[in-house]
Each structure stands twice: as structure tokens, then as C-alpha cells.
Amino acid sequence: MLALIRGAGDIASGAAMRLWRCGVDVVMTDLERPTAIRRTVAFSDAIVHGKTTVEGLRAVRAENAAEAMKLLREGVLPVLPDPECRCREELAPDALVDAVLAKRNLGTKITDAPIVVGVGPGFTAGEDCHAVVETMRGHTLGRVIYSGSAIPNTNVPGLIGGFAGERVLRAPCDGIFTAVHCIGDTVEEGETIGFVEGTPMKCTIGGVLRGVLDDGVIVRKGMKSGDVDPRGEISYCQTASDKAIAIGGGVLQAILEYTGVLNAATGQNILGV
Fold it and tell me: I want to staple 250 with a disulfide (CB 3.0 to 4.6 A). Which of 142, 147, 177, 255 is the partner?
């Protein structure tokens, strides 16, 4: 089975790891200049640096569908700079997962693959995809929705260590971002993490810098550019988050149910066949 995942940030990467470790071949796509901030656990980093490894799973940049299939045969996860997912026609995946997390549908259609899964708000199961996976932290995180949509975007980050919006670092102005701290650094409230055109981006709380944009990324004022984890556990920077793993489980469930792979074990699937 081949799954094509649009987006290769940390949440999409959590889904990719879930699928890969269950025997599903995975190809991922993202921007030529990715904007993921949790770069140590995002396969999008392979686009920038040519290769990356997350929790022991190696990913390598591919330039086209043919290169992607060659990498799969070598046991490597391919990541393509292909935000429009044009490789889909040549790859003909069994499942397509839109995990761009744009909070809106950027063009994914229910006819793009036999199984289409939308991650987060912006999708409606039964209209532009077969299933939606909830991304809002809380009781329903990671649940699969077979009719309707995920909870609308609130623009309020989930609580971690008692902090929500305070832990997210945002660009102070439009321009090119340059970091002065690395992921995994211990930082203090008020400390400068990076600059945008000479204007400092400062921490609003202390903790461990869990994510920060790569140097050279063009940002807009208010754009999410960093993330401080108030729990202070450096090892969390190297592993997928609880949120990514929960959402990945939902993606895996949706694909297995719709493909009927579980029929032999359960005698039924969501399609009733």
C-alpha cells in the first residue's frame, strides 16, 4: 500500500511514522522552503538539507516520482518539494493524506485517491475527503470523523505545561528570519531567539526551545516562528509529540478501515463490505 502525504511538518511526520512502521509505503511533499518549526521531528527538513532522520526513520529528498519510488525500494522515506502534489498522478497512491494544516482545503478532492483523509479543520468528510482526523487538543484529539468536519480553528494553541499562546513565538515583522538559538537550547523569558530584518523575536516564557524556523525563511508579521516548551525536557525535542502520535493513529485507523485491511480480523469495515 502506498500513502501520499501532503505536508511534512511535525504532525504530518507523526502520521508518516505510524504508517511506515505498520508496513505502509509513504511519500511526502512540502514547500521548496518549508516553514515547519519543530524541524528535528519533521521530515520536511530533508528538502532543505537533503536528508534527515526522525526517531530512527531516514528520509531523503527526491526530485520526482521516479526518484521517490527508487528510494522506497531502498527502504528510505522520500520527501519531494512539491506543494501542489503534482506527483500524485504518476504515483497513483492508494491513500492521500492532506496534513498541510492550513486550516482550509488547498485543493484536495475526494477523487484524488481511493482513500482521502483530511487532517484538521477545513475538510468535510463525505464531501472533499472520506474521513477527517481531529487535531484539537482535548478529549477528541486523534478521533476519526466519518461525517462532518473537525472543530473549527480557535487560533489558541493547546496547553502545554500550563501555557498556551505564551509558548508560541511569532515574527515581529515581515522579512527574512535569522535564528540565534538552536532547538534544544534552554532559554529565559525575554531572551532573544532570532531576528527579522534586525527586529528581535523574544521569548515570552522560559523553558526549552522546542522549535524554531530555519535561517532564511521569509516570514510575515505574526507568523508562528518558534515554540518554547515550559516543561524543560530537552529529550522531547527529538521525539514526535503526543499530539502528532495521536493524530497519526487516527490517520492509520481511517486508512485501514477504508481499505478493508482489517476485515479478516473484524469481519467488517466502515464501508460495510
Answer: 142
